[in-house]
Amino acid sequence: MSARGTRLGDKLLHVYTWLVIVWLSSPIAVMILFGFNDKKSKSNTTWQGFTLRWYGELFDISDLTVALRNSLVIAAVSTIVTVVIGTMLGLALGRHRFRGKGVTNFLIFAAISTPELVMGASLLSLFVSGNVPRDANTIIIAHVLFSLSFVVVTVRARVVTLDPSLEEAAKDLGATAWGTFRQVTLPSILPGVMAGAMLSFALSIDDYVVTSFVNGSTITFPLWIVGAVKTGIPPQVNVMGTLIFGIGVLIAIGNAVAARRRI
Fold first, then answer.
1. How many CA atoms lie within 13 A of 16 on its CB side?
2. What residues does 50 pair with on adjacent strands?
3. C-alpha pair distances (Å), 52 with each of 32, 34, 83, 253
4. Over the stretch 145-195, which tens digit does the pLDDT of each residue have?
5. Which residues contact residue 231 at a Cβ distance below 8 angstroms, ignoring those fewer than 6 apart?
6. Which CATH superfamily is domain 6-262 in?
7. Is residue 204's pLDDT more than 60?
8. What three-state secondary structure class fits 50?
9. CA–CA gap between residue 29 and residue 46 (Å, rounded)
10. Higher pLDDT, residue 56 or 2
11. Which has the closest alpha carbon to 31: 54, 8, 7, 15?
């Protein structure tokens, strides 16, 4: 291929990439924009003017505020549990050989590929057959189960790149097993742990399908939004979504900067 053809191909690839980025970002841009919409009628789907009113009245809808709080608490708790368990599993799968390792790897990736509808229905059947009351606790259990695999995969990918001689050197210098993990292993795998934590939190806070099977009377942010479609989505939903998105972006940037400084 000639140099001119190569340059043309590169330009087309760049244009295509930016088109995909714009396409994926357009729903977020619309959400942010309509958080400033001066809603004068029941509909919040047409632009009616600019206002900052909804940022000042963010928590005026009590049911929506409760739903958001439920989602944040559930996401935080499930993320903590998932990161602890997933980090240990990632270390075991990336570092050690043991009987059943192949089966464990298969189950981890099977959980990722399982449709949410199947997972939600199976968890509902489990809770009903065990007479387990469905509430925030069952939602947390469900979120841990479907996000655990993602944490395991990210941590395992980081573990397999580590140099075992660093840990051996720490032990030779008198460090205990816990001291070696805290001062050598954990800092080395921290980027993978943080990536898994962010992914787990994002999967939890925006989940609708699995949560709708196991929530009982507990309403989360996504469930409230779907229930409000018939009566009209208030602008506060767009503002809350904007703030969640903005905080997520800031955390991602901070994590990337911190990882670059460690290199």
1. 6
2. 37
3. 12, 11, 37, 26
4. 999 999 999 999 888 888 777 777 877 777 787 888 888 888 888 888 988
5. none
6. MetI-like (1.10.3720.10)
7. yes
8. strand
9. 14
10. 56
11. 54
